Amino acid sequence: MFTQVTKGIKVSVQTTFEGTFFKNYKMHYAFGYTVTIENQSKNTVQLTARHWDIFDSLKEMETVDGEGVIGRKPVIKPGKSHTYSSGCLLASPVGAMQGYYHMVNLGTSEEFEVEIPTFKFAAPFAMN
């Protein structure tokens, strides 16, 4: 598990290898990840946007920006958490992701970024 805390918001990520498949005559490697965002601060916050840098050992880095996570903009009260799962397709059996969430403190309207720790993807057969 990969974990990081920014301004009282703890982000933890667990990854899984989902398998391989052919698409357009090319092998693809499917990975899943589950993110838990835990509010350890004293303020209610809302996640409004995300930024991802996706690293694939056989391709150039890809950047993805978007609103919320999986179609939601969760409000997270102090002591509570939000968990979601998503996935990533890579051209190689090894890669990584990192990024940040854009958050708003609902009490003060302060906007801030919460770092997502770099987490790695590796198919079991690619590990030594």
From TrEMBL:
Domain ApaG: 3-128
Record-level GO BP terms: error-free translesion synthesis
Domain of life: Bacteria
Residues that span the membrane, as ranges: none
Pfam families: DUF525
Gene3D superfamilies noted in UniProt: ApaG domain
NCBIfam families assigned: PRK05461.1
Name of this protein: Co2+/Mg2+ efflux protein ApaG
Encoding gene (name): apaG
